Amino acid sequence: MYKIVKKQPLNPTVTRMEIEAPLIAKKAKPGQFIILRVDENGERIPLTVAGYDREKGTVTIIFQIVGATTEKLNHLNEGECLHDFVGPLGVPTHVDGLKKVCVIGGCAIALPIAEELHAMGAEVTSIIGFRNQDLVILEDEFKACSDHFTLMTDDGSYGEKGNVTAPLKTLLENGERFDEVIAIGPLIMMKFVCLTTKEYDQKTVVSMNPIMVDGTGMCGGCRLTVGGKTKFACVDGPDFDGHEVDFDEAMSRSRSYTPFERHAYEEACNLFKKEVE
User: Fold this and answer.
1) Cis peptide before 88 (omega within 30 of 0)
2) How far lies 189's CA from each of 37, 132, 165, 208, in Å?
3) Nearest Cα residue to 84 out of 29, 23, 143, 39
4) Buried/exposed code over 180-193 (b: 16+ C-beta within 10 A; e: otherwise)
5) Is residue 233 classed as helix, strand or coil in its secondary structure?
6) Three-state DSSP class for 44?
7) From CA 277, how far away is CA 274, in angstroms rounded?
8) What is the mean pLDDT of residues 223-231?
9) Chain centroid to CA 172: how far?
10) Which of 54, 83, 185, 267 is the most buried (most CB within 10 A)?
11) Listing from the earlier edge strand, what are the strands of the sheet with 160-161?
12) Per-residue pLDDT tens over the stretch 84-113
């Protein structure tokens, strides 16, 4: 059993948890992920490792409450345990030799990459984006590991107005070049980042996080088309050359699960409502 040693809401829909998992904490690296089950009858879901403390033996996860399992997970409190917590899985993000990097995030899992690069002495430009001010998280943490930092909101309620591609395009138009642009977040965001960087022949890496079941390449649920070939995010990734990923196919496959996820989420919410009543 894997005990929750710390739980912290970051905004109304995003929660950070610190899980006691010493063997995973000992080996985890930025870019890798774990697969968890809340209870013995629960589904397996992948979550990117958002941090780790090798001395304390803990692993940090950050998740958005969007489905049945994340709803159940969010109902657990400090001192309670997860049934399964498996990892680290996937190939760590390649950071060796990178001196100048732009990290673009639409989610919290971009933070450990930026922190690792900063610790290595790389010049880090971070561009993070949110829909509005109420959803902004980890601003101070990103600032602490960034030489240059830009925060965007879609509605302009905080930071600069617009999406993350706007400041990126401005940098590239002005002749800025990076060893890599690393984009992590929603598929649509990563797609448009890659369309922007492709215009300037700027190397771009994206982190793919599709539906997974076993996390070992056996089920094929996380298959992607990359450079015209079939790849599996769980064992070949999650990082891939963004200019070779078929984002339209990935988004189409992702949408096919939406009705099932919505039904499961509504059932979970109704169950918790009945328990409260």
Assistant:
1) yes
2) 28, 16, 8, 12
3) 39
4) bbbbbbebebbbbb
5) helix
6) coil
7) 5
8) 92
9) 25
10) 185
11) 160-161, 148-153, 123-130, 100-105, 180-184, 204-207, 239-241
12) 999 899 888 888 899 999 999 866 778 889
